[in-house]
Amino acid sequence: MKINGKPHYLWRAVDHEGELLESDVTKTRDKSAALRFLKKAMKRYGAPRVVVTDRLRSYGAAMKDIGNVDRQQVGRHLNNRDENSHLPFRRRERAMLRFRRTSNLQKFASTHASFYNHSNLDRHLNPRSKFKQKRDAAPEEWRQLLAT
């Protein structure tokens, strides 16, 4: 994505259920940025059993430094869960008419992730009555979290 005409990169870690775990914004998409992001995510959530990435070479170099090369999976459609997690974020970004500063993007990405994880109810997995019950309870829980 571009901020003031300069490209910036949004790094995201998504778990097997589609919940966003970690996000980070950098100006570069190189080995050091990948290494910094992977270390940050692993420090918070522990070592993963499998890391699915796209074919960017900096992922492989960073995984080699960490020692997780055998856990990395690269494939054509393997990272669809991560790519699909970008869609609601992009939709909201367009509505906001882009970002002006990197710090604003980082704040928005982390806030959007926590709210989206809380209100995304996997409609296709739940019966309609359960979905409606959870949908009605989510905003109330969010208000209680913000009040404390």
Features:
IS_Transposase; alpha+beta; DDE domain-containing protein; 148 residues; 6 strands; 5 helices; Nucleotidyltransferase, domain 5; two-stranded antiparallel ribbon; two-stranded antiparallel sheet; 53% helix; DDE_dom
Kindly report the name of the CATH homologous superfamily: Ribonuclease H-like superfamily/Ribonuclease H
User: How would the global form be characterised?
Assistant: globular
* Unreliable spans: none
Structural class of the secondary elements? alpha+beta
Proportion in β-strands? 15-25%
Architecture overview:
By secondary structure, the protein is of the alpha+beta class. The protein has a single domain (2-120), classed as Ribonuclease H-like superfamily/Ribonuclease H (Nucleotidyltransferase, domain 5, 2-Layer Sandwich). It is built from five helices and six strands; from the N terminus they run ββββαβαβααα. It has helices at residues 31-45, 57-66, 80-95, 102-119, 128-147; strands spanning 2-3, 6-7, 9-14, 20-26, 51-53, 72-74. Strands 1-2 form a two-stranded antiparallel ribbon. The longest helix is centred in the C-terminal third of the chain and has 20 residues, at 128-147. It is globular. It starts with a strand and ends with a helix. The mean pLDDT is 79. Residues 1-119 form the DDE domain. This is DDE domain-containing protein.
